Amino acid sequence: MCDGNYSARNGASIKDLYQQADEYQKRFASLYYYNPTNVQPIPRSGSFVYFTRTPQGREFYVVDAERKTTTPAFDPTRLADSLAVRTGQKVQPYDLPFQQVRLNRERDSLFFSIEMADYVALLGDYTVKKIRERARRPDYYWGRVFKEDSRERVTSPDGKSEAYISEGNLWVRDKETGQARRLSDDGSPYEYYSSNIYWSPDSRKIVCSKYRPGSDRELLLIASSPSDQLQPKTERYDYVKPGDALPVRRPVLFLLDEGEAVQLDVPDVEMQYSLGNVRWNDKSDSFTFDFNKRGHQQFIIYAVDVATRSLRTLVNEVSPTFVHYSELYRYWFEGSDELLWISERDGWRHLYLYNSVTGEVKKQLTKGEWIVKRVVHVNEKERRLIFVGCGMDKGEDPYLEKYYTLDIDKGRITALTPENAQHSVTFSSDYTYMFDSYSRVDLPPVLVIRSVEAGGDVVYRPDIQPDISGAIAAGWRLPEVFTAKGRDGETDIWGMIIRPTHFDPTKRYPVIEYIYAGPHDSHVPKGFAIEHHGSALAELGFITVLIDGMGTSNRSKAFHDVCWKNLKDAGFPDRIAWIKAAAARYPEMDIERVGIYGASAGGQSSMGALLFHPDFYKVAVSSCGCHDNRMDKIWWNEQWMGYPIGKHYAESSNMENAHRLEGKLMLILGELDNNVDPSSTLQVVNKLIEHDKEFEFVMLPGAGHTLGGKYGERKRRDFFVKHLLGCEPPEWNREEATKR
C-alpha cells in the first residue's frame, strides 16, 4: 500500500508518475531553446560560430563581436540539398547530421564531420567535398600498460639520424650511410632501454631511461552473453592495483660526440610512481624531468646540467597528506628563464613564479582564501595571463568559475566576468574577445560578448538569448541552491535541491541523495541545465539533493585532505548536517525517510552510507562500486589512500564492514566493468551472504561501468518507491505483456 501522501497526488496513478519520469526530457528539456553549445572561434577574427536547438530544430549561428551582429552561419536548406547529393541520403535542413562546425576567417568554407569522414562545404555555391576518411581507432582502454617497448624509430631534429631500441639496447643509425652504432651495452629483454627516446635540439645528445617492467596483473572478465555467438567469451585487461610492483625508470644521458653514457643518480629511484616528461632547453645544455614519488607526498622537477653531469632539484612539491599530481600545472616561459607553477603549499591552490634555472621562487603571484582553478592563456610579451578562479567573491558559491587577468609583474588582478554565476567562456583566437554564457543551476543562461582589453566590459549582447519559457510553461521548476554549515559548524557546504514538478508544500517527501564523492574534483553542477541527476527520479514523489562535502576538491587544502586514507568518510558528516539544515527550513523534507544512490566511487559511498551512518540513511542503491580500495585501479586509490597499503584500506572497505549492514540495499553490477573490478562487488555479495544479510543484487550481462542503464534505472526507481514511499511498483511483466 502507498502512504497517503503518495497514492493520489494530483490524481496521478503510480504508473502515470513513472511515465512522467520517463518522459522528463521530452516534457521539459526538449522545450529549452537557443542555448549555445560547441562554440568555436573563427580564426583571426572577433567572431564565433555555435550550434543550438531552436523551435525549428538544429541551427548554427555566427556572432560577430566587432560588427555586433548575430546571423545564421549558412543556408541550411542549400547545405542539406548538397549533402543529400553527396551522400545519397535524405537530409533535413534543420536536422543536419552534425552538431559542430568550423568556419575559416573568410567564412566561405564550412568544415564538419559525419561519422568517420571529414567534409568541407564551399559556401559560395554549396559544393560539398569529402576531405578525408578517418581510420576507425581501436577501442580505447584507459588502463592499458605501455611497457615502453615500441619498435618505432625516433628521428633526430636535424633529420640525419634515427634512434631505436634493439635487443634491449639503444642504437643510433645514420640515415644517409645506414651505419648503426650501439650506445648502451647493459640492456636485456628483461630490463631494457625505453622506447621513449628524447633527442636534444642540437641532435648531439639523447635522454633515455633504462626500464624495469612492473606487475603484469590482468583483469579477467567473462562475457556471458556475447552478441555474436552462443558460448561465453573472456576479456583480458591490464589492471594494476594498489600495492603492485611498478616499473622503474633510471634516466641515462647519452653524449653522442663523446661516446659517453651518464647514469643519473636519482634519489629514491626505486620509490617512483612515475618518472618522465623529459624536456630539453633550447640550448641543449640542460633538460628537466618529473619524479612523482610513490605515495604522492612528493613531486619533484629535476634539472640536469649537461656540462657538469649534475642533477639538481628545480621544484620540490611536498605534502604531509597528498600532492594532487594530476592537477599540477607548469608553464615554461620561452622568452625568459621563468616557470609558472601551481601549488597548494599555503593551504590554497595558487600561482607561483620560479626562476627556471636556479629553482628559486621569485614570488607568489596569487594569494588568499580562494583558488586558481586553471590557467587559460599566458601572454609573455605583455606579461599577463588569464586564469579561472573560484571563491574570490565572498558571499557567493565558492565553486563558481570566473575569469580574471593577472599582471605578472605588478600583481594586479582584473575580474573579467563579475556576475554571480558560472561562466562558460570561449576566447577568440587572439584572446581579444570572450564568448561568455553565464548561468547558475537557478539562473538561466545569459549570452554576452566581452572585450578582454577593456577589462571584460560587455561589448555586445546578442538578441538571440537562451529561452526556457517553454519549459516553465510546461511546469518545470528551477532547482534551489542551498548552503549550510558542515561538521565543524563553520565551513559552508554547498548543494542543490530538486523538487518534483508536481510539488505540494503541504505534503512531506522522502529525500534521496545522489552521491559522487570522488576527491579528484567537486561534483554538484554549477551551470544551468533542465535535467540533473535526480530530476526525473523526483517525479515519482521525492525531493532529491546533490551535495559537495569535505574530502572533495576545489576548496582549501584542509577541506580536501579529509579524504586522505579515509575514503569511507565521503563527507558524510557534512552531508547529514546539510540535509538536516535543509529539512529545518523546509519541513516538507521528510528526513526519517532518506535514500542514497551512486555509481563507482558513488557506489562505494552509497553502500557506505548504510554501513557507517545507518541511523540517517535507510535505503541505498549502489552501482559498480569500488567497495574495497585494494581491489580497484592503482592510480586513483593510491592517490587518496596512500602507499604502502595499511589497515586504513580495510577500515574503508565495504566488504570488510559488510556485517554492519542495516537498512535496505540494492547492488547493481555490469559483468564487463573494466573500470572497477567486478569482484569488488561480488566479494561484498559473498560477505553479505556470509553474514546472513538481506539485500538485492542485479547483475547486468554485457554491461560495463554503469549506473545501471535503462533496466538498472527502473530497478532503482522500484527500490526507492517500495522502501521509501511504501508503494508497490507497477507489475512490469504484465505491462510488457500487455504491450505485445
Describe the structure.
By secondary structure, the chain is α+β, with helices and mostly antiparallel strands. Among the domains are: 32-133, no CATH class; 475-730, 3-Layer(aba) Sandwich (Rossmann fold), CATH 3.40.50.1820. It is 15% helix and 35% strand. The protein has an 8-stranded mixed β-sheet, with helices on both faces. Strands 13, 14, 15, 18 and 19 form a 5-stranded antiparallel β-sheet that branches. A 4-stranded antiparallel β-sheet has the order 1-2-3-4, with no helix packed on it. A hairpin with a 2-residue loop joins strand 33 and strand 34. It is globular.
Sequence stretches where pLDDT stays below 50 over 5 or more residues: 4-10
Intertermini distance: 28 Å
Spatial shape: globular
Taking Cα atoms only, what radius of gyration do you get, to the nearest Å?
29 Å
Question: What is the count of helical runs?
Answer: 13
Query: Could you give a short account of the major beta sheet?
Result: 8 strands, mixed
Question: According to CATH, what is the topology of the domain at 475-730?
Answer: Rossmann fold
CATH structural architecture of the domain at 475-730: 3-Layer(aba) Sandwich
The level 1 CATH classification of the domain at 475-730 is: Alpha Beta
Q: Please give the share of residues in helix.
A: 10-25%
Summarize this structure briefly.
With 740 residues, the chain is of the alpha+beta class.
Descriptors:
43 strands, Rossmann fold, 8-stranded mixed beta sheet, 5-stranded antiparallel beta sheet, 740 residues, 13 helices
